[in-house]
Amino acid sequence: MPPPFSTLLRCTALALCAAALALPAAAAEQEAEEDAPPAQVQAQAQLPAWTLSPDGSLVIDQRARLAWPRCVEGMTWSGSACRGVPRLFTYGEAQALVRKRWQAEGVRWRLPRVNELRRLVNRTAQPPSVDLRLFPAMPRDWLWTGTASVNTGTVNPYTYGNVARGGAGESSMSVQQSWAVNMATGEASGEVGRATRLHVQLVRPAP
User: Fold this and answer.
1) pLDDT tens-digit map of 100-118
2) DSSP structure class, residue 168
3) Rounded CA gap, 60 and 57, in Å?
4) How many Cα atoms occupy the beta-carbon half-sphere of 3 within 13 Å?
5) CA–CA separation, 129 vs 137, rounded Å?
6) How many whole angstroms separate alpha carbon 60 and alpha carbon 29?
């Protein structure tokens, strides 16, 4: 037996009310999605960690917002490769180079920090390595960093820095040391004498 006509009317009215209530909620949800800030949308997109500048001379670290020349100091990017001969600097010479470049170009060049320089080395690879597609002439050697320290303990004559200096157990109170990173392994050492001559890879804020 079919339900009474009045019952059908009530059911139809309830259904229409439910639909009417659902429409504003759906519209509001869609409007919220459309009004989402662009930064949120961009954050959801996975950008590559490393990109090249338009002219190919810089490697841009998108996450740290840093720009690295593709060649160490003494070499220049020709458009397809690093040309020239890598130069070696004492720590003081490296810092003087930074000041000179900053004054000449008006760009905030500096020596990288330990963790920034180590980030260029893929330490999970076997053996650890730098991506030669990005840094085709990176020396597999020690590079200066801007992280400086003075060790007040007794100097160990067998540490890297003292072997390079020819030290033999003298007090490090009179010997200033700074940090360097081995680009072949990602190892960092804070016991490198500042008179040691090492390669230099500068860094600057990303453009």
Assistant:
1) 999 999 999 999 999 999 9
2) -
3) 10
4) 7
5) 12
6) 37
CA distance 156 to 2: 99
Does the pTM surpass 0.70? The reply is: no
Residue-wise burial string across 107-117, b where 16 or more C-beta atoms lie within 10 A, e elsewhere: eebbbbebebb
Residue 15 has pLDDT above 90, yes or no: no
Closest CA to 180 of 91, 100, 98, 93: 91
Token pair listed for 103: 């004054």
E strands along the chain, which residues? 50-52, 58-61, 66-69, 75-77, 82-84, 121-122, 129-130, 142-149, 177-182, 188-193, 204-205
**CA dihedral (51, 54, 58, 62) positive or negative:** negative
The beta strands (E) that lie in 34-186 are given as: 50-52, 58-61, 66-69, 75-77, 82-84, 121-122, 129-130, 142-149, 177-182
Q: Which residue has the tokens 């020709």?
A: 78
